[in-house]
Each structure stands twice: as C-alpha cells, then as structure tokens.
Write a structure and sequence with these properties.
192 residues, Rna Polymerase Sigma Factor, Chain: A, mainly alpha
Length: 192
C-alpha cells in the first residue's frame, strides 16, 4: 500500500478499527530514519539507539489498535519512543552499581590474543596523542575522571573548584569527540 506525503491513517484506514500489519509497515517505513535520528539524539549511542528503535517498533506494533484515526502516526510513535527512553533511563538510574577491585574477581578474562593486545596498545597510543592536542589543562582532569576519580577528588587534587573541573572535563570530552571524528572519520571507533 503506497502512502502519499501528508496522508494520515484516517484517510488510509477509515473503515477499520485496527491498523493492519501492511499499513503499520508502510507508515513505519516512511518515518524510520527520522525515528532513528530522534533515538540517536536521546541516547547519543548508535547501538542503544538501534535497541531503542527496535523496542519502540515492537511496542507500537503490539499496540497499533490504540492508534486513533485522525492523529499523526509519527507523533504517536515518537511518543512511544520517548517514553521507552525515559523508562530505560529510570531503570539505569535506579540500578545499584557495585564496584569491586579487579583482584577480587575470580572469573576475570586473563586470556587475550596478541593481536588484540597490540591493537589496544596502538589505539591507546593514538588516544594519548589526541589527548595531548587539547592541552594539559583539560586532559589532566579528563584522564583523572576516566580513571575513576570523582569531581570533588579531582578538584582537591588539582586545587580547582568543582565547577571548573566539570567545565574542563566537558570541554575535553567535546574536543576529544571532534578529534576522534576527524581522525577516524566517524563518531565511533571501528577497527578491523
């Protein structure tokens, strides 16, 4: 079934109470790219955005009988996507995080291949080189933060107010994202 731009569900399906599978797929195909862009904007991670879009697709399909003729399909599905994102965020926020020293983990992975180890070392060297481009003023709190120090600990260690620490880490993160994007040609590092 072909849909014209601006055509809504009511004009397509005025005689049915439940959207058919074909109608759902036709509508969804038209907005899938925009929904993915919205999911990516919310999650800031391509993999999570794909998972969120898949969850949204399933929820929308399962509840397609709740879609009201005369409303915009894109808005309806975008609301489902946004609500799914909020639910995921709440679940992540309420999960307790337990930190154990690596030495206490009995089942840690001690076997790695030489190729992977070499690749990891090479990537770390590349990242260190990129970090040196942003200057010590920004790279030092950035490194400390990603080494597990809290903002307060970094502030005490560097004799800086917490707001300055947060600002420098934010700047360093944004600058590193731009550098990595320029260096690797993509916001996500992908190696063969």
């Amino acid at each position: 079934m072909e849909l014209n731009k601006g055509q809504n569900f009511q004009s397509l399906n005025s005689n049915h109470k439940r959207m058919t599978k074909e109608e759902f797929l036709a509508h969804f195909a038209r907005i899938e790219e925009k929904l993915f862009a919205f999911a990516l904007k919310l999650t800031r991670d391509e993999t999570e955005a794909r998972d969120l879009l898949q969850e949204t697709t399933m929820r929308a399909y399962e509840h397609r009988n709740r879609f009201r003729p005369g409303t915009h399909f894109k808005s309806w599905v975008a609301t489902i996507l946004r609500n799914a994102f909020i639910n995921r965020y709440r679940k992540k926020k309420t999960r307790r995080q337990v930190s154990l020293p690596l030495e206490n983990c009995q089942h840690r992975n001690t076997g790695g291949t030489t190729r992977n180890g070499a690749l990891t070392n090479l990537m770390m060297e590349e990242l260190e080189a990129l970090l040196s481009c942003i200057g010590k003023k920004y790279s030092q709190p950035f490194k400390l933060y990603f080494s597990g120090f809290s903002y307060q600990e970094i502030g005490l260690k560097m004799n800086l107010p917490i707001g300055t620490v947060k600002s420098r880490i934010h700047y360093a993160r944004a600058k590193m994202q731009r550098l990595i994007r320029n260096y690797y040609g993509s916001p996500h590092i992908r190696r063969a």
